[in-house]
């Protein structure tokens, strides 16, 4: 090492010691949410990483043999269920916390003994290649997962770089060690899911290939390069295709040591001899572009075989992101819940480009990102609410990249639409609204994006005027979505109206008064679905009449998607005051909120909704799903704001924990966790697109938020405890404030916010 | 026009008049070979063009409902049968003259009246979208095809640039004009052929998309851009998929005016209003890379809508290629047969790259050709015999590009093999041998390639040493392919031995004495499958014994592929003299040849071979298939060379014509036609890889061959007629020659060759 390098070395060592003495990863438990319906995965990934290398505890098919939907499908959105005792292998792509699913690509399973390529039944031990495991032999931490595969006495360890999964399998001594690569396995598997798969054995320790599926992502391509640390002694595959045609490949013994394997459904295997405790390592790189791209990613990100080094570097990457909010809490459990929520908030959106910036676009052409890092997995109906607002505080640069990814999606879209749910170079059209505009408006309002405003406005306006999109043509003509033309019409009308308000905000910043007035006018459309005579938002028909059949409690078929008129009907975040006035005023509204939280909902009202589960329900309030996430904060707009404080605290304490069942519903790509982070810090973005946050009840002792502008936003609480959930006083930079809002500027300016807490409400504190 | 431009203009006009006064395209009849088993297509294409836009007269499925092979499949290798009266549409990719098939991509059909997306049955008029047609309303010429679609009174015209098909449809007046784009249609269609198809409606007159198939090419991607000359008024599609899963696309009315259409099997349509005789034109560009590539090809090659201009330019491209051999013949029929053969010899291999040089490689990655034009469709077991030798005379630069394409194929091959049958970024493994080495050796011998010799040798040697390839491992170990391990073992042994001789020739030129001796030794392996006791090449078993069951006349299951011991057993082109000596000497060999031509083969011996048809048989000689193409020339190696002259003339006169049934078997990607061109000119490359041509019986009056070195090789005949088929004297550059061979240098030096003909043989002329 020369002198200059040594100086640099000292500088970075010093910097590193100075900047990061705390290990926040110790408070992350990736298993949180893996029991019941959290739909999180426990495996290894980097923050926002393209690879999510995680165990599958069961392999489901979506449709049973008689053609019926298999209700177990839903349980395995992320591939892993804590109550299971079986591991089928480790695959490389997973969604975190979604309520519909896909992926589970490239399942790798190490086995020993007589080769068995059939996965077998989870309920029947040794019925296939799967293995029993127990949680006592399982470790999950940020960027690292390990488990003992009991059936084979193989210790499996996983870590990852951004684009490369790194496996390490310690085998027993055997002449029959196998590594299975199952290309049939898929999450949300159905008969026609795989459209094509392809493996090339490049040499005795490197294979490449791709898998193409037709699932939630209609046409998904994932390319890979898989490098073994040791040459395999032989290999082969089994093809499960039904096609009568195999061309002249029939002249080969394709199934044994033939270096091209292809078909719709194939399982490959690679054989080894191992000595006792010999570790076989695998580097498994992904690309959306090509096998060439996957190899480039592999060689660039992971040119060595040092597993511990990657494990530590990935842990360090996580620590860097987690350290952006340094909280102190009363209990360890709270701290673990907090940092696990932080962890869950950074599992998606994921980067979606190769190290050279190339990525597959929505038009299926290969693009190169210019001035941004392309991302995918935008579950926007969920994440616009709190996750992207959170990013505007702790990840503004990355959020700006995400916005640019959305604009690229728009440019590549044949509909000229921003993403609804951006999914591996596909639009999967899940849920309602066009909430990318909210993400853009929020970033515009908070000055965290440098995109051209006119371009952003044009993209937003294009998106909001596609007549064949989900009732939007009717909405534009009639001012509401008619239920007889497009179901979930009230949800759509409310979400569109809010989205239009967002577009108006962008227009205002762009000084486009025409667009501003057009979309501001459209933002009032919520008025058109409010039935004054019954006091509920209600589905209206194309002829202007209210639909006769209507049950404001039923969450199915009543004009709302995954919600009912009682809760989803309160969705006017941009004009809460006007909505409250329209609904009879503050006191009556308070009473309605009380009723929501205290009237138990009957099973018959939720039985048709996979996404509404008992765990996440308080009365009629459904925390386990998104449309009500702002509801606890609505008391702030009434004469009883302290009820926000108690309800928020109740939800924080009862709906989250540091245990495997610590999520009361799908984490929804981080939205549930983002709600928790905001709410424990004491404020929440009720209306993304505005700079205001509504104050709730902080449940931390203190927090320091590191901002990208170099400043720190400090939150302190005085006298806070599980009993002292009410606000008695709030000081911002030493001055008492009387409203229950703070502004984004307060954060960005590096203010100090002190919450003084007590066991009883201070009823003078109002909005 | 300014003065300089005007001067250029005059210059080019003069040049054009000077260089090309003759129109050779008038002698081309693309319908030759469309009746019975020629398997040629009559549609529009440029020389070696990537688009072959041609009508389909029936849509076949490969397997009937009970799972059996549909024997009609074979008839439709090129999509068109002259005896049919129905047209189903015009698709953009076709193979010319093959005996197995694929392609037929992007079938376009114009219709009127009530929309019908079902193709219907050919036998039932008006049972689907197909139309009746008659040959009196049909025109086919080089680069142009037109037909009246009787059912709709639509005049269809087709032409093409290298990468763009150009359609022109003259409609009647109607409010119900449709253009159907059928993505279900495929040549050699089976249930699982389409793996995925995708259409994007970019705007009201442009669509893009792709089709991915699993056929003879295992994983073929073809991307397209389709531009209409007039906006469609509406559009839609029908999806025929059986998949239970459609994600959230179900929220759309996907079938009507929804600009993304995707699935395994879809048919799309585009609606128009037309006035009487209104012409709707379509530009349809292909790419192996992406829709972006297809659009680039479209905009680069065809930026205008002038149909006549393209038709004329394409005709001119053909004329330029056809003019490379300027023949005079006794009859117009002969001239038409000759130029049609010339035409057929340039329908493949085809260029396979976008205008920017990008192409899909065998590894499925996107490559850019560097210093060559990438080609595909190498049907090498057929074309190494005479087609590539022909190219070495009239297309040496392009042949060099083809060799470089083969080397790129090798580099991209996981097997590190040169192509066996290169097929749209796939290896389809059809037939036996590794004849790319012959093409390279022939070009090396004739100095028409500038590839690095060591690199070419390495690629050839790699190809010849892949142990799992088609019995090659056994061949390397035992010196022959054992029939009990790999069928068609004698054919394989003979072809490998010849191929090895070719590699030895490359090695010799590369001064690699080790490789030379290795492969020269291997080239003697034909000795190992000759059974002296019965006087035939015969299948041998792995234990060294001859197979007991053996019938030297049967073309099925007797160690030969598409041939029998009588004819295929004479395949030792590199050591004909030694073979003849081994088989008992010249006189006995002559008698065997006589027997071949005079003993009628019984049906039972050929019934299992689709590729051997009665039309192409003389006694036991099968001209309609390749393995015997050198046989008529083998008399030259005996004491009765004049029998070569009469037999060649007999074959030229009886096995070819200028009529629709003018080919006696599959044209085999141009090999049959190349045989005709050589044989009518009076010589034939019996042993590609050597510079010698064996002289037969010229049937032209004269020929001038334009060489790329600027010289002209002139052939004249004196006293030649259908009766005067025997050579009495040969003069090369004014000097009599007594051998029946000429050398490639004689051609390249621009010699004059005069054949003096008579009605009786001159028995003094011998080899």
From TrEMBL, chains A, B:
<dbReference type="GO" id="GO:0016787">
    <property type="term" value="F:hydrolase activity"/>
</dbReference>
<dbReference type="InterPro" id="IPR050883">
    <property type="entry name" value="PNGase"/>
</dbReference>
<dbReference type="InterPro" id="IPR005887">
    <property type="entry name" value="GH92_a_mannosidase_put"/>
</dbReference>
<dbReference type="InterPro" id="IPR014718">
    <property type="entry name" value="GH-type_carb-bd"/>
</dbReference>
<feature type="domain" description="Glycosyl hydrolase family 92">
    <location>
        <begin position="294"/>
        <end position="758"/>
    </location>
</feature>
<dbReference type="Pfam" id="PF07971">
    <property type="entry name" value="Glyco_hydro_92"/>
</dbReference>
<protein>
    <submittedName>
        <fullName>GH92 family glycosyl hydrolase</fullName>
    </submittedName>
</protein>
<dbReference type="Pfam" id="PF17678">
    <property type="entry name" value="Glyco_hydro_92N"/>
</dbReference>
<keyword id="KW-0378">Hydrolase</keyword>
<dbReference type="InterPro" id="IPR012939">
    <property type="entry name" value="Glyco_hydro_92"/>
</dbReference>
<comment type="subunit">
    <text>Monomer.</text>
</comment>
<dbReference type="InterPro" id="IPR041371">
    <property type="entry name" value="GH92_N"/>
</dbReference>
<dbReference type="InterPro" id="IPR008928">
    <property type="entry name" value="6-hairpin_glycosidase_sf"/>
</dbReference>
<feature type="domain" description="Glycosyl hydrolase family 92 N-terminal">
    <location>
        <begin position="27"/>
        <end position="287"/>
    </location>
</feature>
<keyword id="KW-0106">Calcium</keyword>
């Amino acid at each position: 090492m020369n002198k200059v390098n040594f100086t640099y070395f000292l500088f970075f060592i010093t910097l590193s010691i100075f900047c990061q003495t705390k290990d926040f990863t110790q408070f992350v438990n990736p298993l949180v949410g893996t029991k019941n319906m959290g739909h999180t995965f426990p495996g290894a990934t980097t923050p926002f990483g393209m690879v999510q290398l995680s165990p599958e505890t069961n392999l489901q098919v979506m449709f049973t043999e008689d053609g019926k939907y298999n209700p177990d499908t839903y349980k395995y959105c992320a591939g892993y269920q804590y109550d299971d005792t079986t591991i089928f292998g480790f695959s490389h792509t997973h969604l975190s916390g979604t309520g519909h699913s896909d992926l589970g690509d490239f399942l790798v399973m190490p086995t020993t003994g007589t080769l068995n390529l059939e996965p077998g039944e989870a309920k029947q031990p040794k019925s296939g290649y799967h293995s029993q495991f127990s949680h006592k032999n399982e470790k999950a931490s940020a960027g690292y997962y390990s488990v003992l595969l009991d059936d084979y006495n193989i210790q499996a360890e996983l870590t990852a770089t951004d684009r490369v999964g790194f496996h390490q399998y310690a085998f027993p001594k055997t002449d029959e060690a196998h590594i299975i690569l199952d290309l049939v396995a898929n999450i949300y598997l159905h008969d026609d899911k795989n459209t094509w798969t392809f493996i090339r054995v490049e040499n005795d320790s490197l294979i490449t290939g791709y898998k193409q599926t037709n699932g939630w992502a209609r046409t998904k391509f994932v390319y890979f390069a898989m490098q073994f640390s040791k040459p395999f002694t032989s290999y082969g595959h089994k093809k499960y295709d039904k096609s009568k045609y195999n061309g002249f490949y029939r002249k080969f013994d394709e199934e044994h040591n033939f270096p091209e394997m292809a078909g719709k459904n194939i399982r490959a295997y690679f054989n080894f001899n191992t000595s006792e405790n010999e570790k076989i390592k695998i580097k498994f790189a992904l690309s959306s572009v090509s096998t060439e791209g996957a190899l480039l990613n592999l060689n660039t990100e992971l040119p060595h075989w040092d597993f511990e080094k990657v494990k530590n570097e990935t842990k360090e990457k996580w620590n860097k992101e987690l350290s952006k909010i340094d909280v102190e809490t009363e209990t360890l459990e709270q701290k673990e819940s907090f940092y696990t929520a932080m962890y869950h908030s950074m599992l998606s959106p994921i980067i979606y480009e190769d190290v050279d910036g190339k990525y597959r676009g929505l038009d299926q052409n290969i693009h190169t990102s210019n001035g941004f890092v392309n991302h995918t997995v935008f579950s926007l109906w969920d994440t616009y609410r709190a996750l992207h607002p959170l990013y505007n505080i702790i990840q503004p640069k990355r959020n700006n990249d995400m916005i640019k990814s959305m604009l690229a999606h728009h440019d590549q879209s044949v509909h000229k639409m921003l993403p609804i749910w951006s999914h591996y170079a596909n639009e999967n059209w899940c849920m309602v609204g066009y909430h990318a505009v909210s993400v853009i408006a929020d970033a515009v309002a908070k000055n965290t994006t440098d995109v051209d405003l006119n371009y952003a406005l044009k993209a937003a306006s294009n998106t909001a005027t596609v007549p064949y999109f989900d009732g939007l043509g009717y909405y534009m003509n009639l001012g509401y979505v008619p239920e007889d033309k497009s179901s979930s019409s009230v949800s759509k009308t409310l979400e569109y109206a809010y989205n239009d308000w967002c577009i108006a905000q962008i227009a205002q910043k762009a000084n486009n008064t025409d667009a501003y007035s057009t979309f501001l006018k459209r933002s009032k459309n919520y008025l058109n679905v409010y039935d004054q005579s019954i006091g509920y938002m209600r589905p209206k028909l194309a002829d202007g009449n209210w639909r006769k059949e209507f049950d404001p409690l039923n969450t199915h078929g009543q004009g709302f998607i995954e919600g009912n008129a009682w809760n989803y009907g309160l969705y006017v975040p941009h004009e809460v005051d006007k909505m409250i006035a329209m609904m009879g005023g503050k006191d009556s509204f308070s009473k309605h909120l009380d009723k929501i939280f205290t009237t138990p909902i009957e099973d018959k009202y939720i039985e048709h909704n996979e996404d509404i589960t008992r765990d996440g329900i308080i009365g009629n309030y459904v925390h386990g799903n998104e449309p009500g996430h702002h509801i606890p904060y609505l008391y702030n707009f009434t004469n009883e704001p302290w009820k926000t404080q108690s309800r928020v605290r109740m939800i924080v304490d009862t709906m989250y924990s540091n245990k495997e069942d610590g999520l009361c519903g799908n984490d929804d790509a981080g939205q549930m966790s983002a709600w928790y982070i905001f709410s424990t810090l004491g404020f929440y973005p009720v209306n993304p697109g505005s700079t205001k946050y509504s104050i709730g009840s902080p449940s931390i002792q203190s927090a320091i938020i590191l901002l990208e502008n170099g400043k720190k936003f400090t939150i302190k609480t005085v006298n806070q405890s599980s009993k002292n959930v009410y606000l008695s006083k709030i000081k911002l930079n030493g001055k008492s404030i009387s409203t229950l809002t703070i502004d984004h500027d307060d954060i960005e300016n590096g203010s100090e916010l002190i919450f003084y807490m007590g066991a009883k409400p201070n009823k003078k504190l109002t909005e």
